[in-house]
Amino acid sequence: MAILDFLSKQFIDIIEWTDDSRDTLSYRFPDEDREIKNGAQLIVRESQVTQFVYLGQFGDTFAPGKYSLTTDNIPILSDLKGWKYGLASPFKADVYYVVTRLFTGNKWGTANPVMMRDQDFGIVRLRAYGTYDFRVTDVQKFLKEVAGTDDHFRLDEFNDTMRSRIVSAFSDALAQARIPALDVAARYQELGEALLPALNPIIGARYGLTMTSFVVENVSVPQEVEQAIDKRSSMAAVGNLNDYVKYQMGQGMENGGSGAGGLAAEMAVGVAMAQQMMNQPGGITGQATPGIANPAWGSATSATSASAAGAAPNPSVSAGVAGAGAASSGTAGAVPGAIPDLYDPAQVARMLGVAESDVLASLESGDLKGRRIGTQWRITRTAVDAFLHS
Fold first, then answer.
1. How far apart are CA 261 and CA 325, in angstroms?
2. What is the pTM of this model?
3. How far is residue 166 CA from its own chain's centroid?
4. What is the pLDDT of residues 25-60, one digit of tens each?
5. DSSP-assigned beta bridge partners for residue 114
6. Same domain flag for 220 and 250
7. How many domains, in total, are found in the chain?
8. Which residues form the domain of 138?
9. For the chain, which terminus, N or C, has the lower number of CB atoms within 10 Å?
10. Residue 294 falls within a domain, yes or no?
11. DSSP of 218-250, one letter per residue?
């Protein structure tokens, strides 16, 4: 009995392993310097693959099932040298269990910003993170390139390597896709699906792995780009700048004329109302007396009146009326050859109660008519009135 007990401790008759963790990729069966008995039972459970290694060379590979280790089902090991008792000789070999189930929810992220060229913002720095799922598909390559002789290889030992490979492929795919930074958030799924064909050949050839899904959860841009995006959204919400200026004027009046903006808005509306009154039939212009005639036609009116009275026109009277008309050109009309009222953008901005940049934008777009002289703009009163009535 003592001899049988000794022999039972020297040989392995059952080889099996139950995975009680969720992060084990490979596990080497502990032989404790014992030999595998000829005819020993090998049990391989679902989501496991068993790989025999003898003297550093890969032997037989077993899928899930129950096997008797005889020369019939271990053809590679049966060719090994060193059998002492013919085909029934026990043997020594390393037995590795590799887990082939799907490893889900693995996180990835860019430790440093990824540089990319964007058509809207030029060179931008992007940060991204997400999750991916993978499984082992080539057991021998995985053992050779990744796990090696580790007796218990876990997922956390491989995360850094996978992360670096993913970030590299993510950067290349993002550069090739040329998706604008403003549209990346709307194309997370498209970006993830585009990365799978780029990642699988790399990790399959190097590590014996296959990635089944790749999810981009977030792509963030620097704070400066976020501010530019917010400003662009605000301008899109404003819409027509001309309508926005009028809205600002209305807001100034609604606030009771408080502040420079409200006062300027009231002044601008007052000027517009006065112009309308002058242009209406029977208004101020229509009620002007013959003695204070519009300079454009004052001389002709004086001459006609004098002729109707039977007297020759008096040159001195005509000259006096023309002089009076010239003095009132600000309200009755412009004298031919006279210099009109001119404003710079800052003055127009104060008049309308808006920012100078808004006035410059209206000038550039052509909504407000003006004349550029070198690097400066000049705007006439007529152009301001026409802008307010447009």
1. 34
2. 0.56
3. 19
4. 999 999 888 888 888 999 999 999 999 998 888 989
5. 126
6. no
7. 3
8. 103-226
9. N
10. no
11. EEE--HHHHHHHHHHHHHHHH--HHHHHHHHHH
